[in-house]
C-alpha cells in the first residue's frame, strides 16, 4: 500500500552507513576551497560574537541579531541529537572523546570579523552587488573567521552562508564548521518569488515566513501580485473604496498602508526588493466593485463587466493618479504592469468600443486596442521615473512600443525556450517563470524538474544570454492560503533559487537532494514550515 | 500567468449574485425534510443550552462542551461578516430589519433536547449504531429542537449535524437554522483514515487536529500505521528497545504508553475506533535496529537485512509476546497485520531459509513460505480474541487460511474493482483504499476524483455488495510531516467521508463543491487547517 519506489529509497538510505555531509550551503557557492586536510573548527556559541568596525548601518545591526539567533538554533538542534545518540547507544560520543585523537580537528573560533569595504547602502535595487568572501580558519585567518564584501548586500549573503556552514557534530556535543574559503556571487541578478494575495488573502505573518525562507535561499525579489479579479486587498490612500468594496473583508483581509510599509521594511532589512504588480487591463474585475466605470460593459452573456475600458480618458486619469500613489509607496524602480490574458470578447461585444475603434482607424484590430492601452500605461510608468516589467503577451502583441529598459516576463508553458530566444533576440531583458509554477503539483514532489530548468538553455548568442536577468518561482493562490502556502513554496522555491544563484555546472541531483534536505531542516528550525523534499526522515531538533 | 480555467471560475463566482446556501451538512444526511415554506429560526447563542435527561455518560458530557464551543465559533464568524457588510455597504443589514418583514422567519430557539433511548455505551466498535433523528422547528417540535438516537454514537453524529445546520445570516447579525427534520445513518460501517507515522513522525497535537477533522467528517475509524521500515515510534512496554533504537529520536519522536492511551481516549470520546497496524513480515527494517535476529539475513548486495525470518521459532515467540501487548493496549477488536509487499529476494538469497524450505517440502515455493508466516500470525491474533485485517496480497497469495471474520484491505491501483469482485465472491469482508491515496497529487486538487469512486461499482451480487464494509483514505507520509499533513488530508478525506456515509445517489459535483467549501470553512474555525478546495475565495471569520 506504499509505492515500491519508497521502499527502494528507504533501502538506499539504510545502505548509506556513513554520516551525511553536514554544514552544506544552499544555494551552493560559486567557489569553496577546503583547508587543512578537511579540517574543522568548533564554534563556541556561548562566547561567540560578531566583530564589526562599521557604526551606522541599521541593516547590519538587525542582521547580526538575527543571525546570532539562527546560529543558536543550529546549536540547539545539536542538543536534541545528543540525547538521541545517548539513548540509542552505549558508546562514548565522539565529541566527548579527547579531541586530539581526531586529526582534522583544528581548534575553536569565537568570532566572525565582518568587514564592509564601502558605505552601507540603504535600499536593495536591481543589479545590487551581492558578492562576498568568507574565510573560516583559512591559512591567512588561522582559527579565525572573516567576512568581506563591498556592499551590505554581500554581507547579508555571506552571513547566511556562515550560519549554514555551522552544523552540529554527529554526536550533538558541538557546533562544527569546515576550514574553508568561499568566494561567492549570484549567477543572475533577479531571483524572485511571486506571491498572489488576491485569489486567497495571505496574512502578513504568513508573508513574513515566506520572506524568511527567501532570505535563507538568497532570493532577492518579492514580486507582490497583490490584486486580481477576485479581490483587491491593497488599501489605497487615494481610493480606499477599492479595498472597501473589493477586498474579501474590508477590515480583516486588507493590507493597510502600515502593513505595506512594514513588509517593505522587513524585506529591505533582508536585502530583498519588493516589486508591486497591479495587473491591467485584464484581471481587474475587483476594481469594478467600487469603480465600475473603469471596466468595459459587456454585451454578451458571460459576465456584465470585462477588462478596463481603453477608450475612455477617465480610465487614464484614474490610473495616472493611482500609479502615482504606487510609485510613492513602493521604493523599487520596477513596476510590474501585468498585461496578460486580456480577453477580447467583451470589447468585441461593446458598441461604444467598436465606434471608437472605427473613429481611430483600428476597426476590428483588438490587438491594436490592447497595445493602445498598454502603451499609455507603460509611458505613464516611464513618466513616473520607473521601469516596467510586462507579461509576455505585451511583447507577443508586437504593436506595443516598449523602451529597452522594459523587462519581459515569460510565463507560458510549451515553447518557452523559443520565447526566450525571441525576446532576447529583439533586445529585451527577460525573466523566466514558465517552468517554476509552484501551483503545479506532482505526487512525490517535483523540485528536481524545477531545479533542472536552466534559463540559458535556448539557442542564442552570448549577448542574448546576458539579457536573461533571472526568473521567478510563482505561487498562484487559487488553491493555497495561509493553511498550506508555506510548505508548498518551500523548499521548491529554494530549488529555483539555487538554479538562479549557483554556477550553471551545479546540477548533481543526489548531492542537491542531500543539501536541500539539510537546508529544509534549517528552515524548520527558523519556523519556516517547509515540507519534506526527499522522502522518509526527520529533522534534527525539529520543533513541532 | 494564471490558467484560464481560473478566470472562468472567477467569472462564474461573480455571476452568482444570490447568497450561497448556508447551513449545509457534510456528509449529506440520508434524508432531510424542510418545513414551513423553507422557514428558519434563529439560535440564541447567549442563552442556548443542551437539555439532557441522562446522567452518567462521559462521552455525552464531553461532547456537549465541545459542540457548544463549535456553535459559538459559528456565531463569531458571523460577527466578522457583519463588519464586512457594514464597511462595504450603506444599506441597513437584513438582520436588523424588522424580522416580521421576512415571511420565512419563524422565531427563536434556545435549546436542543438530547434524548438517548438506550444505555450509554463506552467504546466505539465495528458495526456500532450511528443512526439519529434531528428535528429543528418541525411541526411536532415547533420553535424547538430535538435529537433522538438509540446509541451514544448516533447522538455524536447528530450533534455534529446540528452544529453544521447553524450558519450566520448573510448580514452576520444572527445564527440561522432551517426548520427541518433529518433522519440519518451511514451507508458503510467502516469509514476510515489511515495515517502513517513511520515515514515521518507526526506529533500528538497534529494527530489531534486530524481526529478533530475526522469527527467533523463523521469518519469513525483511525487506522494507525504506526511503524514501518523507516522508524519505530511505538514505545513498547515489553520491548522498549524497539523505539529506543528504532525511532528517529528515542525521546522526542516516540509515542509513549501515555500518548497512546490519550489518543485512544481522544478518539473514544468522538466515537472513533483506533485500529493499530503492525505490518509484518515485510516493512519491518526498523525492528531490526534492536532485534536483528527477527529479520532475514540477506546474501545479496541490496541490503543486509530483509523481511522477518519465518523459519525461526524465536520469531513467533517474539510476535506472540508483542502482539499480546498490543491486544492489551488497543481496545478495538481489529488488528491490522499488514502482509503487503513482502520481497522474496532476500529469502531466496539465504541458505538457511532454503534448507528449511527443503526440509519442509516447499522448496522454491516462496509464496508458501510467506503464507506459512501469515497463517501463524493470523492465528496468533485469533487466539488473542481479535479479528484481523490484511492487505490484499494475503488474499491474492491464495495459500493463506483466513477465517471468514478476516477483512481484506484493497490498496493496489489498476483493476481494483475486479479485486473487490474477487474478494467478495470468495466471501470475505472487504475494505477499499485504492482510489483514496491522499499522497497522490494533482494540480488544482483532486477531491472530485476521490469523491466519484464508489466501492459498489463492481460487478457482483447484492450479497457480495454487503461484504463491502467501507474504506479508508490513506495518508502515507513519505512527503508529509507536521508541516503539511493537515491541509493535505482535509478536506480531501472529507470527500471520501461523504462517499462512505451518504446515499449512493449523492453525487452532484456542483452542489458538493459548494457544501465542501462551507465545510472546510467550519474546519478552519475549529483550528483544523484544511486547504482550499474550490478555487479563489475566503472563509467568513477565518482566523490566521
Brief rundown of the structure:
Chain A has 544 residues and is an alpha/beta fold. Chain A has helices at 4-15, 58-88, 152-165, 204-216, 241-246, 257-268, 313-329, 345-349, 351-359, 366-383, 392-397, 416-425, 447-452, 462-466, 485-489, 492-501, 509-525; strands at 31-34, 40-43, 49-52, 105-109, 111-116, 132-136, 145-149, 167-168, 175-178, 180-184, 190-196, 221-225, 273-280, 295-297, 305-308, 334-338, 387-391, 407-410, 429-432, 468-475. Chain A has 2 domains: 20-184, Chitobiase/beta-hexosaminidase domain 2-like (Chitobiase, domain 2); 190-525, TIM Barrel.
Can you walk me through this structure?
- Chains A, B: It holds the Pfam family Glycohydro_20b2.
- The structure is a homodimer of 544-residue chains.
- With 544 residues, chain A is of the alpha/beta class.
- Chain A has two domains: 165 residues, Chitobiase/beta-hexosaminidase domain 2-like (Chitobiase, domain 2); 336 residues, Alpha-Beta Barrel (TIM Barrel).
- Chain A is 36% helix and 18% strand.
- In chain A, strand 6 and strand 7 form a beta hairpin.
- Chain A is elongated.
- Chains A and B meet through helix 1, helix 2 and helix 15 of A and helix 1, helix 2 and helix 15 of B.
Amino acid at each position: 500500500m506504499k509505492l515500491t519506489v519508497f521502499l527502494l529509497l528507504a533501502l538506499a538510505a539504510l545502505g548509506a552507513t556513513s554520516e551525511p555531509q553536514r554544514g552544506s550551503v544552499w544555494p551552493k557557492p560559486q567557489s569553496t576551497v577546503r583547508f587543512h586536510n578537511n579540517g574543522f573548527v568548533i564554534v563556541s556559541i556561548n562566547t561567540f560574537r560578531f566583530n564589526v568596525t562599521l557604526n551606522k548601518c541599521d541593516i547590519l545591526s538587525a542582521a547580526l541579531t538575527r543571525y546570532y539567533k539562527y546560529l543558536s538554533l543550529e546549536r540547539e538542534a545539536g542538543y536534541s541529537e545528543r540525547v538521541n545518540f545517548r539513548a540509542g547507544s552505549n558508546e562514548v560520543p565522539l565529541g566527548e572523546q579527547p579531541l586530539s585523537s581526531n586529526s582534522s580537528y583544528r581548534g575553536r573560533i569565537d568570532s566572525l570579523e565582518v568587514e564592509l569595504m564601502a558605505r552601507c547602502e540603504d535600499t536593495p535595487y536591481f543589479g545590487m552587488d551581492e558578492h562576498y568572501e568568507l574565510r573560516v580558519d583559512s591559512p591567512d585567518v588561522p582559527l579565525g573567521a572573516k567576512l568581506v564584501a563591498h556592499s551590505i548586500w554581500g554581507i547579508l549573503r555571506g552571513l547566511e552562508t556562515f550560519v549554514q556552514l555551522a552544523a552540529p557534530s554527529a554526536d550533538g556535543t558541538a557546533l562544527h564548521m569546515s576550514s574553508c574559503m568561499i568566494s561567492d556571487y549570484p549567477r543572475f541578478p533577479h531571483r524572485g518569488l511571486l506571491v498572489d494575495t488576491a485569489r486567497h488573502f495571505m496574512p502578513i505573518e504568513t508573508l513574513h515566513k515566506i520572506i524568511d525562507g527567501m532570505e535563507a535561499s538568497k532570493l532577492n525579489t518579492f514580486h507582490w501580485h497583490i490584486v486580481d479579479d477576485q479581490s483587491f486587498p491593497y488599501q489605497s490612500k487615494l481610493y480606499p473604496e477599492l479595498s472597501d468594496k473589493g477586498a474579501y473583508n474590508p477590515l480583516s483581509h486588507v493590507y493597510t498602508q502600515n502593513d505595506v510599509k512594514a513588509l517593505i521594511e522587513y524585506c529591505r532589512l533582508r536585502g530583498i526588493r519588493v516589486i508591486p504588480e497591479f495587473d491591467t487591463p485584464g484581471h481587474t474585475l475587483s476594481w469594478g466593485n467600487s469603480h465600475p466605470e473603469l471596466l468595459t460593459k459587456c454585451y454578451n452573456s458571460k459576465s456584465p463587466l470585462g477588462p478596463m475600458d481603453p477608450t475612455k480618458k477617465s480610465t487614464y486619469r484614474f490610473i495616472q493618479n493611482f500609479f502615482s500613489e504606487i510609485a510613492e509607496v513602493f521604493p523599487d524602480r520596477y513596476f510590474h504592469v501585468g498585461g496578460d490574458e486580456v480577453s477580447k470578447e467583451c470589447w468585441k461585444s461593446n458598441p461604444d468600443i467598436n465606434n471608437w475603434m472605427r473613429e481611430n482607424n483600428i476597426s476590428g484590430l483588438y490587438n491594436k486596442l490592447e497595445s493602445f492601452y498598454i502603451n499609455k500605461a507603460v509611458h505613464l510608468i516611464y513618466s513616473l521615473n520607473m521601469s516596467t516589467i510586462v507579461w509576455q503577451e505585451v511583447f507577443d502583441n508586437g504593436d506595443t512600443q516598449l523602451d529597452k529598459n522594459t523587462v519581459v516576463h515569460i510565463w507560458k508553458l510549451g515553447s518557452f525556450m523559443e520565447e526566450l530566444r525571441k525576446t532576447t533576440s529583439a533586445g529585451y531583458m527577460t525573466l523566466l517563470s514558465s517552468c517554476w509554477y509552484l501551483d503545479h503539483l506532482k505526487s512525490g514532489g517535483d523540485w528536481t524538474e524545477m531545479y533542472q530548468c536552466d534559463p540559458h538553455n535556448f539557442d542564442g548568442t552570448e549577448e542574448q544570454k546576458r539579457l536573461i536577468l533571472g526568473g521567478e518561482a510563482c505561487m498562484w493562490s487559487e488553491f493555497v492560503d495561509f493553511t498550506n502556502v508555506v510548505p508548498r513554496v518551500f523548499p521548491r522555491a529554494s530549488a529555483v533559487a539555487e538554479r538562479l544563484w549557483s554556477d550553471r555546472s551545479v546540477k548533481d541531483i543526489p548531492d542537491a537532494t542531500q543539501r536541500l534536505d539539510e537546508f529544509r531542516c534549517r528552515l524548520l528550525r527558523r519556523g519556516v514550515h517547509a515540507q519534506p523534499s526527499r522522502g522518509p526522515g526527520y529533522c534534527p531538533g525539529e520543533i513541532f
